[in-house]
Amino acid sequence: MSTNIKRFILKLIAFIPFAFIIYVALVCVWGDFAPGFAMKNLSYRLGGFGHLHSRLSEVKKVKDVDILVLGSSHAYREIDPRIFKKAGYTMFNLGSSAQTPIQTKVLLNRYLDQLNPKIVIYEVFPKTFSIDGVESALDVISNDVNDIHSLSMCAKTMHIKVFNTLLYGFYRDFTGRNKSFVEKKRVGRDTYISGGYLEKDVQTFKHKHYDKKAWDFQEKQFDDFRENINLLKSKEVKLYLVNSPIAPAYYRSYTNNHLFDKRMKQVGEYYDFNKILKLDDSLYFYDADHLNQNGVDIFDEKLLSIMRK
Asked: What's the whole-number mean pLDDT along residues 210-235?
């Protein structure tokens, strides 16, 4: 190797830290001043959809609950702490929108020891094992203080939008830009309920036809799921894996639900409420994915009856 080439390589190596500093500065400026339509690869959602900011602000003040709930929007919209409180349980719902096992792992690492639950209800939805986790990663980065677990989540999603949003998130945390932010308890039709729950004004859904399809599972999600399960088992908590109801016609449109059930049963005590309950699409759901409050009441009472046994 010639002397000139060696000099070039050394200069290039020396330039990398400087280039990274410039890149970080540009991301911070872009995040502060760029218009929304230009934010293709940066999406900081402080107080975004789903009241995650309220949930993560509240959880920092909570310790030693009977029940911890994990999972997607099915968790925080369908497992109501008020119903369980009437049965004598304290609960915190740590669900988040489109939460995949990658994000569940981050939240467990941050809050499991503090919450110290006796029981964990882990809501498992096949879709969250079939997506990359980018949407949920952006949500968690934007609404919690970031740390080493955020870096791990970024490395697993391997997406430029997550990387840029995390850089901007660290900048917001460092400068204290979010300290004065308070999320409204009511946004649109949603009302935040203490304990991590989000209640939607009762509305109904219509029967629809869905074409046949199959869940396209991502093995990296199952890898993190197994790590989450092992962590929970090491804490000797009582664990329930719960597949909450979706609109029956929507559920039946997926041809490989049985494969998901099989994998869940291999891990722990698993209940598919799409088979346990028969809820009408047009009465107990507000969309194909989510129960309305009338459906929530039925679902939670049934879940409680199973737990009592």
From this structure: 96
